[in-house]
Prior knowledge:
Layout: E1 5-11, H1 15-24, E2 32-35, H2 49-52, E3 73-75, E4 84-86, H3 108-116, H4 124-134, E5 135-137, E6 151-153, H5 163-174, E7 190-193, H6 206-214, E8 220-223, E9 227-234, E10 237-245, E11 248-259, H7 262-272, E12 275-276, H8 278-283, E13 290-291, E14 303-311, E15 327-331, E16 342-349, E17 354-361, E18 369-371, E19 382-384, H9 391-407, E20 417-422, H10 431-441, E21 443-444, E22 476-478, H11 493-507
Parallel strand pairs: 1-2, 1-11, 2-8, 5-6, 11-22, 12-13
Antiparallel strand pairs: 3-4, 7-15, 9-10, 10-11, 14-17, 14-20, 14-21, 15-16, 16-17, 18-19
Amino acid sequence: MANSKYDVIVVGAGSAGAALATRLSEDSSRTVLLVEAGPDYANFDELPDEIRQGHATGTDMAVDPSGVHNWAFTGKATPLNTEMPVPRGKITGGTSAINGQVYLRAIPEDFDMWVADGNDEWSYEKSLPFMIKLENDLDITDQYHGNDGPIVIRRYQPDELVDDQAAFIEAVTDAGYARTHDHNHPASSGVGPLPLNNPDGIRWSTALGYLTMARDRSNFTISADSHTTRVLIENKKAVGIEFEKNGELKQAFANEVVLSAGPIGSPHLLMLSGLGRREQLEAVGIEVIADMRGVGQNLRDHPSVAVRWHAEDDFPMPDVETGPQKTALRYTSKDSELRNDMIAVMRWNSPLREFMMSAGLYLAKAAGELRLISSDSHVQPDLDYHLLDHPYDLERMRAGVRMQIELGKHSAYQGILKEVKDPLSADLESDETLNRWLLSRAQTMHHISCTARMGSADDPMAVTDQYGRVHGIEGLRIADLSILPDCPRANTNSPAMMIGERIADFMSK
Length: 509
């Protein structure tokens, strides 16, 4: 870091931040510093197996819960599940370097909702070119997909599917749902293989896809193992950041600071810098620069529970070397006005010899909160998700679980699924007993978002405008999932990268 003053500092090298910094540094006249709290592996061969191989554990999140690559947060899911693990990537590539590699886009109706909330630049039509720009889809070439972007996408084809995945598609189609070969088509609904960013079993993170393009640029600097403690703000203008590196407290300065630390890290840094709810800041001794009521509010995610079956005794469990095969049903719950408000995913766990159908709720009614509890940047904020804290959320999830139990009785699963392991018969006796089971099992789908949402300056709960600029603070933006008004009906890795691309374009005009 020979240069102590940059045009732009980007904090966080994850899904959005790596995309943003790479695109900004395409302008050779703009100096860009990308700051990442975790380690950086400069080439593919240096990557640890748990990061490089998408099938490292056969689970949704690859990393050791206590390992160096995981922030290892915890949160309160429900009153009956108060110690929920919240893994987030602490590495260049961020959570895209440790995730389950599902590459689902937000659907057009998601963009419609953001526009209706006053963000007309985020229509599907205006955002589609950036979704196309970031991807290299190996299977589909049409007006909706890209074929030369930095993130490689593929799908398991029907003749590649292992038995339980093929059985899921058969059971679901026999139940009357349509088949889809492309979950990322704007009109798609139904059952089919999920698009995955894992060519040849490699987890294709933004560190591989984006940062590889930027590393050799003379105007681009990565500072890894650098824990940002706060944004430096003078007279309501961001002038740089303070961060810890090699045991020392350092500062770097820039004309503009962009927080891409994710929907936990970005609002946390705002609060540590004096931007947030006055009562929370004063309670821990932080000087209030701006009483911003929306910081940390509107926490959104996709609640998920899993119906589990024992595998038949003589069934050969799938080999994790085949990668994280996942087929999914995206569907609209009964009487819902929200298209594709539910998802069901078929998975296996070979070490436990069990199969799972995870029921996921898109567009939950309930919202949670992120609260500051310490002025120490190493102390995580309190994460209270409020999952299923709404009668309609419980209603849709009850229906989803009961549907999945029926799907598991289909003849296609003969010789694969044994008896249901969880929930027990007693859990299914009534809505009340099933509610208790749901509240004790509900988990994050790892799609936390919306904790510093965008909106107009006269909206007291909006933290940024639609260009990511923090209201009332010059030279400070947010570019990650924090700014969304609601969680999209998709896994959030692809939307996060799209946000990085979109904000980079705003900043280049």
